[in-house]
């Protein structure tokens, strides 16, 4: 089984990418995870640009999602919401059924005390509109993230580690359920 991870941060060493790596480190051997590498190449969404065949960067996104058994999104909070590049990527999936019933795990992390709660609040309705399936424990907000991660990405906070393991278990369980229904 395969998970496609999407980081809402374009920074190479962002805490969001470190959290994605922490999830990857907790996956069973039967599950692989790949970080999507084309978020910043996507053109601005407009229905007029949603053509057949799709533009190459859009096709890359859609193929990556289609080939994944689940999607993991980890995003920072920008201006009380999710970054525009992440919303743009999700907008490119609206005219497809790629995300319908797809298992999705979501994390929002912020150095602030509120910890990305507003980003999560803006992300969840979009995922609901896309008809995704978020497992029990599959949505995680990590506040004060820099105090919970070592520089190498090691989780130093026990409750955060437990929450990550819960997210992984829920997402993998939902992936297994999805496979059994085929």
Précis, in short:
The chain is of the alpha/beta class and about 180 residues long.
Would you write up a description of this structure?
This protein has 182 residues and is α/β, with parallel strands linked by helices. It has five helices and five strands. The protein has helices at 15-25, 56-66, 84-91, 117-129, 158-180; strands spanning 2-7, 32-35, 70-75, 104-109, 139-142. The model has no long low-confidence stretch (mean pLDDT 94).
Question: What labels would you give this structure?
Answer:
182 residues, alpha/beta, Rossmann fold, 5-stranded parallel sheet, 5 helices, 5 strands
Q: What structural category do the secondary elements indicate?
A: alpha/beta
Strand percentage = 5-15%
Using the alpha-carbon principal axes, give the shape. Answer: globular
Mean pLDDT: 94
Taking pLDDT < 50 over at least 5 consecutive residues as the criterion, the unreliable ranges are none
Report the CATH architecture. Answer: 3-Layer(aba) Sandwich
Overall number of strands: 5
Q: How many independent structural domains?
A: 1
List the helices and strands and how they pair.
Elements: E1 2-7, H1 15-25, E2 32-35, H2 56-66, E3 70-75, H3 84-91, E4 104-109, H4 117-129, E5 139-142, H5 158-180
Parallel strand pairs: 1-2, 1-3, 3-4, 4-5
